[in-house]
Amino acid sequence: MAAPILKLSNVSKSFGPIDVLHDISLEVRAGEVLCLLGDNGAGKSTLIKLMSGVYQPTAGRIEMDGKEDHFPNPRAAAEKGIATVHQFGGTFPLMSIGRSFFVGVEPTKGWGPFKVYDRKKANAIAVEAVQKLGITRITDGDRLVGGLSGGERQSLAIARAVHFGARVLILDEPTAALGVKQATHVLRIVNEAKRRGLAVIFITHQVMHAMAVGDHFAVLIRGAIASDFRKGEKTREEITDLMAGGASMANLEAEIESAFGEDDEKTPRVA
Amino acid sequence: MSSSPSLSIGALLRRPETGSFLGLVAVFLFFTAFGGTNFASPTGAASWLNVAAQLGIVAIPIGLLMIAGELDISIGSIIPAGSMTCAIISGYYDLPIWIGVGAALALGAVIGLINGILVIRTAVPSFIVTLGTLFAVAGMTLGFSVLVTGTTSVAIKVPEAKWLLGDFIAGIYQVTIFWWIGAALFWSFVLHASPLGNWIFAMGGDKVSARNAGIPTERMTVMLFVCSGMSAAFVGLSQAILYNSAQVSAGQSYIFNSIISVVVGGVLLTGGYGSVFGIVLGTLTFAVVSQGIYFTGFDANWASLIIGVLLLGAVLMNNTFRKAALSYTPKKGTK
Ligand SMILES: Nc1ncnc2c1ncn2[C@@H]1O[C@H](COP(=O)(O)OP(=O)(O)O)[C@@H](O)[C@H]1O
Ligand SMILES: [Mg+2]
Hints:
The structure holds two protein chains of two kinds.
Chain A: E1 6-15, E2 18-28, E3 33-38, H1 44-51, E4 59-64, E5 67-68, H2 74-79, E6 82-85, H3 97-101, E7 108-109, E8 116-117, H4 119-132, H5 150-163, E9 168-172, H6 180-195, E10 199-204, H7 207-213, E11 216-221, E12 224-230, H8 236-259
Parallel strand pairs in A: 3-10, 3-11, 6-9, 9-10
Antiparallel strand pairs in A: 1-2, 1-4, 4-5, 7-8, 11-12
Helix pairs in contact in A: 4-5, 5-6
Chain B: H1 9-13, H2 18-35, H3 37-40, H4 42-67, H5 75-92, H6 97-121, H7 126-149, E1 153-155, H8 159-165, E2 168-169, E3 173-174, H9 176-193, H10 195-205, H11 207-212, H12 217-243, E4 245-247, H13 253-264, H14 276-292, H15 302-326
Antiparallel strand pairs in B: 1-4, 2-3
Bound molecules: adenosine-5'-diphosphate and magnesium ion (MG).
């Protein structure tokens, strides 16, 4: 099996006195989809923010291609090929598809101080990139991003990451706000990115979506990995129970603790 | 494949300046109807073009700042500060005019720099930061003028610089009109043709994402404040040269007037959307209303009512056009 592109070993993260993640170890390989499952507040978003340079781990080690590495800011992570699509991807609603696709790396024509933004080229490349991922409904690069459906916006953001040569694609709940049909579209694109050899980290709390694309699964409960298994090792019911079990355990613990009047608990309470 | 842009009515309706164009046509027809032939005559046109030109030179960089998600109201005292600086140096002290002009522009640049640095270094909104510099600069201008010259108004006679900054073409059109046209062309290039324009739109759309995409948002913010400061100082010094004198309090009206022009011109107050052409049309609309009223039989006080209604109407109309732009989908099967 190929060496992992990105590997976390015993990573923890706390914000002041609040421990959000404890002792997380994970790895992703090229051409593999790692699904991060977990209830709201489990720490999924915090975990991927460690991988995309938004936060720094409090303890533990991050490796890229087998060498210790760190991402001091989002830009550094992006330059090393880690592309993150946040939940509400397509963040420039009033910009055209072509312009938002190339934000920060605009293609130009002309020379010297008269370099002008090459709208035609930007539009053509952007439209081609999304079409290659199977979104054939986007044909006009002048359309505003805000006019696209949620699924199309996610697809555009993924197409952008693929186009600019990302090696690791992190998707934070890309299907959470979508209907069945649009979610299917996005899942198909996740598969396509995987087929092209990207390592994908796919966050969701919908077990069905995870099972549709995942090769490897990690269930996060209150900041710790409760279970780590590969495709086919667990049934849908077992995974659902794992996620739900964690939640009811947490409630139980919270009840016991409040019964004893301990208000200075360290672990965050699950609402 | 992407088709080339068609100049259809639909495409025009989705542009940010559509609303301001319709507004301008409406007020123009209104004042032609009530103001008679004088309003649209060359002399009448000069009266509103001259007002539009001075306002327009500051309104464009203010509009770009608004597109980038910032606001600059300190221009209200940078204009008189530029005016007084130029008049004190080249009028009171009688030094060569280029020193006065250079010093005024440098002052505008420095105030812009201070605004920009304060905005990026502190988390204070730019409205508050520039409100602070608005008062600070106003106080400084007054204090220095009285300290140096003993008065609040200084004469300046520089016939050698008149042709460039303070002359009237054909006896009625201020040369500032040409500076305004030049500024509009320059800023159109920056915002709509150069890659910098894309950065400005992205900054106004979502500053954090823009920074993550590698845009030097802080440097851009400072640059835009420097440009608005220098543009304001330019308007101030050209007024001093034009009127042969400078006053310490002659710019506060520009604060609201430029914001009105920009918003009527289709720029979204919260940033991320707008056009230079729209701002130019918004400025013309404002000038037509504020000057056109004198050609009618109405009391001039009614102009403010019209401007207020126009502003609200423009915002509502621009919202509608922006929604149309957002919901636009090309017809299927036109590949
Ligand atoms: N910056 C922060 N400071 C303090 N606590 C935080 C911060 N970010 C997240 N948390 C806490 O960490 C926990 C996990 O949050 P998050 O990673 O967003 O969960 P998820 O994405 O799985 O829903 C929550 O209890 C949240 O309150
Ligand atoms: Mg989350």
